[in-house]
Amino acid sequence: MSTTPIDRRTLMRLGLSGLGGLVLVSGMPSLGSSAEGTDAALSPGAQDDFSFVQLSDVHLGFSGARVNPDSQGTLDKAVAAVNALDKRPEFVIFTGDLTHLVEDEAVRKSRMAAFMEAAGRLTAKTVRFMPGEHDASLDRGEMYQQFFGAMHYTFDVKGVHFIVLDNVSDPAAVIGQQQLDWLKADLAKLKTDARIVVFTHRPLFDLYPQWDWNTKDGQSVIDVLMPYANVTVFYGHIHQEHHHSTGHIQHHAALSLMFALPAPGSLPKKAPVPWDPASPYKGLGYRTVAASSRQGPFLPLDLPVVRA
Ligand SMILES: [Fe+2]
Known about the structure:
Blueprint: H1 8-13, E1 23-24, E2 50-55, H2 74-83, E3 91-95, H3 105-119, E4 126-130, H4 133-136, H5 142-148, E5 153-157, E6 160-164, H6 177-187, E7 195-199, H7 218-225, E8 230-235, E9 242-246, E10 249-253, E11 285-291, E12 299-304
Parallel strand pairs: 1-4, 2-3, 3-4, 6-7, 7-8, 8-10
Antiparallel strand pairs: 2-11, 5-6, 9-10, 11-12
Bound molecules: fe (ii) ion.
Fe (ii) ion (FE2) binds near residues 237 and 239.
């Protein structure tokens, strides 16, 4: 699989200079200034505890005052909150729907550029991306890749193996056989007690298929992961906190940074939860994940984007 780190030249081509010293990576961690570029198991800090941040479903470009009157400013508030965290995360990852779906390619491009500018204000060492169906389903991720690089890839941090899967660029909402084969080959290199974290946009299990809250061939991914004893999945798409297990594999859905969605199947139709003036930003937030690199589960902590 080819990967495309977001380097300075790419940013210049996209008209996005001025992003400071931040290392923006999507794909193999091949940039020399990234702390993740070495085999984590061999590096001196390999046994340190660490944390990372998951941001999801930003939907930049969405507008609707009754849903989010601060649709232009919510991402910036999240960036400021993450930059203010006491412990600097090892990396920040956006788990899809960076931009809100739009057919007009020029508008889509401007949304992706605006997103990249905003993400560039994160002070984390590394920022990673993956697509949601809003970003990638209209052109199978072609424009997304120009901005953000590969759509499925792996990286290692302090002895933990991270796998980013694309279950959105195929309009059929599948991972597909090719990516599944790639995943099998990647996993075959690991011991069955390896610590593995998987990022997806859609849930891998059938949370609520009537609302597109599933991956059609997600079970085949779960089957491939099952022999591994330490697997945690973090995903987005459903715009709310949700925790589920398939056997020993934990699945944690993250909040959105644009609008909340109702609990699975709780309403006849899926629609954004209206803004509550008495409790602004309710249901919007970001996630920090604490990780011991030696053992124990990866525990998510979901935080409001604006504290009450
Ligand atoms: Fe979304």
